[in-house]
Amino acid sequence: MNESIVKITNVAKQFGGIRAVDHLNLTVSRGSVVALLGPNGAGKTTTIRMMLDLLRPDSGTIEVIGMNPRTHAKAIRQRCGYVPERPRMIPWMTIRKIMDFTAPFYPTWDPAYSSALLSRLKLNENQKIRNLSRGEEARLALLLGLAFKPELLILDDATSGIDPAARRDILENVIQVIHEAGTTIIFATHLLHEIEGLADEAVFLIDGTIKYAGRMDDIKQSFKRVIAWSDVSLTDIPPGATVVTGKKTGPHTEWMIKGFRNEAWQKLMSEHHLEIQDVSLEEIYLACHDESAG
To answer: Which residues contact 165 (CB under 8 A, 6 or more apart)?
Structure first.
């Protein structure tokens, strides 16, 4: 079994009468790339901020790199890169100045690697932060989060609100980091199509709780769209499979199935005119969301 780098146990957080995180249980294995998926308000940022002791949970326990954020926040932050959606930076500084300002906070800061990232991310070290575009600002935040070669990199909607070219640059560099260093990455996003080919595992977060989680390949295999062109009853569906959503359109019925196993459906497919289709990660998430809302 892989060693865990993050372990969240029965964690809850409430703001006023709103429960942002509802008894969350999550384990992230070292070396994995985990997509934390959900719309704004699902609890992604609250969970991440509790991992870094930027918020305190109301109940439950959190371990990050084997440490409790409440007692070892500084040590965790020195070994964990964090790239938020809108990073706060000192506007009068140049890129080089903020690199030099940030470096002493991280014992493992690598000057040669930070310079290589500067070139790779197409940033001008003499440019002032106040003059950066949103995409350049995001690339700089990624540089600052990577230059000390963290064990864990957390991207919290880091590509939200920036142009496609800047998103591509960030994702390409994240992929390179995975290949170079085997860094564990948690990628919180509501842009599901971006993460589909990058993540090993996906966690669907809805209303502060995990609706579904698993390895990406297993999720894509488990969820299928089944289109029935002849009369098929719900009672005919093989054991272990459940209908997440269903609708009848004209002469056919369409279901989103969870727990699909090809061999279990062979008999039904031989008796009825069925069409089995793959579905995207976004379609799976929306189906789980609709099931939860229903």
So the answer is: 135
pLDDT tens for 250-268 read 777 888 888 888 777 877 7
Domain 4-207 CATH (choose: 3.40.718.10, 3.40.50.720, 3.40.50.300, 1.10.357.10) = 3.40.50.300
Query: Domain residue spans in the chain?
Result: 4-207, 218-293
End-to-end CA, the chain: 36
Long-range contacts, 238-241 (Cβ 8 Å, 24+)? 238/264, 238/265, 238/268, 239/264, 240/264, 241/265
Lowest mean per-residue pLDDT among 29-33, 51-55, 261-265, 289-293? 289-293
DSSP string, 225-256: EEEESS---GGGSPTT-EEEEEEEETTEEEEE
With 0-12 / 13-18 / 19 or more C-beta atoms within 10 angstroms meaning exposed / middle / buried, residue 221 is: middle
How far apart (Å, rounded) are the C-alpha atoms in residues 109 and 182?
17
Cα–Cα distance measured from residue 278 to residue 170, given in angstroms and rounded to the nearest whole number: 28
Q: Is the dihedral of CA 92, 95, 96, 101 positive or negative?
A: positive
Is the alpha carbon torsion for 230, 233, 234, 240 positive or negative? negative
pTM for this one?
A: 0.88
Specify burial of residue 44 (Cβ count, 10 A radius: 0-12, 13-18, 19+). buried
Report the C-alpha gap between 39 and 29 in whole angstroms. Answer: 24
**Residue 209 is encoded by which pair of tokens?**
């709780």
